[in-house]
Amino acid sequence: MNAAQRPALWGVLNVTPDSFSDGGAYLDSRRALDHAHQMVAEGASVIDVGGESTRPGADRISATEEQSRIMPLVESLVAAGITVSVDTMRASTAALALEAGAQIINDVSGGLADPEMFPVIAGARCDYVLMHWRGHSETMDSLANYDDVVGEVAAELSERTTVAISAGIEASRIMVDPGLGFAKTPEHNWALLHDLSALVKPGQRMVVGASRKRFLGALLPPGHRPTERDALSATLGVLLADQGVWALRVHNVAAHREALDVWQAVGHGNFDA
Q1: Which domain holds residue 203?
Q2: What are the residue numbers of the active site?
Q3: Residue 248 bridge partners (DSSP)
Q4: Which of 11, 150, 232, 243 yields a CA-CA distance of 20 to 30 A from 189?
Q5: What is the full DSSP assignment across 111-160?
Q6: Domain total for the chain?
Q7: 107-156 residue pLDDT tens
Q8: In this structure, what CATH number is given to the domain that contains residue 69?
């Protein structure tokens, strides 16, 4: 990871009724498209579209339902010239999205949920986010068992990366994600954030999705809304920039852009957006 590089901002766009932060907010296609354009105007270089909630305890939906939620939006975003990432664990959904012009597949399962995912990615030669994962939403909290969370997550990410490369995915196309909140306690998340460089190989890109997550909420008074975690999320984004994280997956793009503007001005003695 390169600590001198300003992280890219990926705007999160969930077209789901039950995502933890914005579930139901963007089910209307016009509203979703308007929000995507707003995030791009605020500084997002990628819009990350998801049609299935992966919050702890979430129920799975069918591939047909997932695809009906995201594909019209993916097609509209691509037509508008916006770089699209699709957040999916399903090879069939990934294939449809890539055929429609999506450029990145963000797979929270790291290829474990669908054995056909790696062949699809290899054939498309697209960028691929490989996240650390131990199980689906229904069981993930029960799988947060580690003796050495940094060492074990690093080893599991490395093993999945090796399998992906063996399946024909180019190493330069793979970005890793530590999977904050996925089969991890708040203490595990903080330990990983303290030592992110241990999770990547030299030159490997890392994407981090910490925005509005529960472990940040633990720092706030009880009863707050997930949107009230934006200041904490942006503050953490600056600290992740210092560690050389390549991209931040965020809900409030403007808040992160402004925080990174300050980071850039302080770090380089000047500001040039």
Answers
A1: 8-268
A2: 213, 249
A3: 9, 208
A4: 11
A5: TSS-TTHHHHHHHHT-EEEEE---S-TTTGGGG---SSHHHHHHHHHHHH
A6: 1
A7: 999 999 999 999 999 999 999 999 999 988 778 888 999 999 999 999 99
A8: 3.20.20.20
